[in-house]
Design goal:
The structure holds two protein chains of two kinds. By secondary structure, chain A is mostly helical. Chain A has helices at 3-32, 54-62, 65-96, 102-112, 118-128, 138-141, 148-158, 163-171, 176-205, 208-213, 222-232, 237-257, 259-270. Chain A has a single domain, classed as Orthogonal Bundle (MetI-like fold). Classes of the chains: A mainly alpha, B mainly alpha.
């Protein structure tokens, strides 16, 4: 085949696929600026005839969207902060500190990775009740404070730290925690950024567990509130699209800003076996 | 402080959280599935009885559970191969030397992966709206009459499958692309000196070299697709005519709408068993194939 012809086909296919990938998101953005009722016409309008912020005003002033946005931000930040600290310490120890039972323990953890979280949901619900964590932010944060995948990710990365470095630090009689805080953490920075994005996005996009635990509307995250709104105001397409924009835009922006680290984390977690 | 104590000290906080809030509840879920835990037991544990395999037997005689199982298998059976096919195709296109604007394309194709499933479901409902949706409008140009995507029991699940493919293919695409880039160029050079066509290079070099990666993404995607929940919750509420009730949707309703934790746990355990069995089959088949 003529290379120019082949190039046209390949790039043409990619342009088509990209259009399919981006169209729903772009249309969501466009419809969110349309006045109420404008999207319910045939043929469907591509661009707003008279762009308006009315839907966003309605969401933030009447539907309490700011509250949901802050809930989502706060919960994702808290889960990310806690899990980063706990997973990093554990992942580093599994890679570099020798202790009895280390290998067996890690194998058990990896084995537990196959258990889908839903098996634990009903007992977890019953456990959180006496701890007064049901219908509170804690119900989302506490179970998310550590995760097997995060530990695995940090361990994979930490294994490349040379032992000589640690030995040298120990000769200087630095305590293990000081070595960790002042030498290891800076070395792990790339994987920590990856892990932070992965857990922030994971927590932000999570739906089933927050839906179960956060019954009080004031505590709900964006996806839970949006699902409730969709059941109530399903017909107001313009308003719903604005709600989707508020839900998607923060994570999409975060991804675009830290794309490289995100993809590296994803590959580190799945390609190496 | 001894070295061993330091190690344990470092792993203890994370292990404590994982044990208390994941491993023990998961084991307890197995136990709960053998009890008649319901709304009365929620009020007082004195109402709790051990019922053996009763919940499992009851599930296996409940038509709606079989329906949920069938719907879930439909979603996995069609959704996983199609999404991996799209991932593979997109990765091959991106990997081609003739591709321009590679990083732009990669970012754009990956973007749906990071979006929130609930928000995407909301978009989907509008996109596939029978009267005002863009999809029916585009089909009208091809002379196809409007399809009642989410209201017709035959079309509701395919609509959800399309959503899943759109949202997920970028993830596996990135993994397959990394694996493509790791194939040594010498293999292709050798194949070309033997006069192998593009198709033969594909069959004898690319696909065998991708084998382990394709198996990995198949197993991971299968486990993920079995956990279908948010899409039917937002788009169809399991309807029309139960055509989109998934096993997890069934479990959610049973557990958190009717508070039948015993039955819900049994459904969760059966789902786990199913994921485990299908993953095992995939791995076994791929060994025989290789």
């Amino acid at each position: 085949m003529h290379p120019r012809f082949a190039s046209a086909i390949i790039n043409g296919l990619l342009i088509g696929l990209t259009a399919v990938s981006l169209f729903p998101l772009l249309w969501m953005l466009s419809v969110s600026f349309m006045p109420a009722g404008a999207a319910g016409t045939f043929p469907p309008p591509l661009l707003p005839a008279a762009p308006t912020l009315a839907n966003y005003r309605e969401l933030f002033l009447r539907a309490g969207m700011l509250r949901f946005l802050l809930n989502s931000l706060g919960l994702a930040a808290a889960v990310t902060g806690c899990s980063l600290a706990l997973n990093t310490m554990a992942g580093y120890a599994f890679a570099k500190l020798r202790f009895a039972g280390r290998e067996r323990l890690f194998r058990i953890l990896l084995g537990a990775l196959v258990i889908p979280g839903q098996v634990a949901m009903m007992p977890l619900f019953l456990l959180l009740k006496p701890l007064h964590l049901l219908n509170s932010y804690g119900g989302v944060i506490v179970p998310g404070m550590a995760g097997i995948f995060g530990i695995y990710l940090v361990r994979e990365y930490a294994r490349s730290i040379p032992d000589e470095l640690l030995e040298a630090a120990r000769v200087d009689s630095a305590g293990e925690f000081r070595i960790f805080a002042s030498i290891i953490v800076p070395l792990l920075r790339p994987v920590l950024v990856s892990l932070a994005i992965l857990s922030f996005l994971g927590c932000w996009n999570d739906f089933m567990w927050p839906l179960i635990v956060l019954t009080d509307a004031r505590l709900q995250t964006l996806p839970v509130a949006l699902a409730a709104l969709a059941r109530e105001h399903g017909q107001d397409s313009e308003l719903m699209m604005a709600g989707s924009v508020v839900t998607i835009l923060p994570v999409l922006a975060l991804f675009l800003a830290l794309q490289k680290q995100y993809i590296q984390g994803l590959l580190l977690g799945s390609v190496k076996e | 402080m001894t070295r061993s104590a330091a190690g344990w000290g470092f792993v203890a906080p994370a292990l404590l959280v994982i044990a208390v809030f994941f491993v023990i509840p998961a084991a307890a879920g197995l136990g709960l599935s053998l009890t008649d835990f319901d709304i009365y037991a929620l009020a007082s544990l004195r109402n709790l009885r051990f019922v053996g395999l009763h919940n499992y037997l009851q599930l296996l005689t409940t038509p709606l559970f079989w329906r949920a199982l069938g719907n879930t298998l439909y979603f996995v059976g069609a959704g996983v191969p199609l999404s991996i096919g799209v991932s593979l195709g997109a990765a091959l296109l991106l990997h081609s030397r003739l591709t321009r604007w590679r990083s732009f394309f990669r970012t754009a194709l990956f973007a749906p992966v990071v979006t929130t499933i609930v928000a995407v479901a909301v978009i989907w409902r509008y996109l596939f709206h029978t009267r005002y949706g863009m999809v029916n409008y585009a089909l009208a140009h091809l002379g196809i009459a409007p399809v009642n995507w989410l209201g017709d029991p035959h079309w509701a699940m395919p609509t959800i499958i399309l959503l899943a493919i759109w949202k997920n293919f970028g993830y596996n695409m990135v993994i397959v692309l990394a694996s493509l880039q790791a194939i040594p160029e010498e293999l292709y050079e050798a194949a070309r000196t033997d006069g192998a066509s593009w198709l033969r290079q594909m069959r004898h070099v690319t696909l065998p070299m991708l084998g382990p990666t394709l198996l990995l993404v198949s197993v991971l995607s299968t486990a993920g697709y079995f956990q279908l929940f948010a899409e039917p919750y937002v788009l169809t509420q399991g309807g029309p005519l139960h055509s989109t009730v998934s096993v997890l949707y069934f479990m959610y309703e049973e557990g958190f709408k009717w508070w039948n934790f015993g039955t819900a746990s049994a459904a969760a355990v059966l789902l786990f068993g199913l994921i485990f069995a299908v993953s095992g089959l995939l791995i076994r088949f791929s060994r025989r194939w290789a």
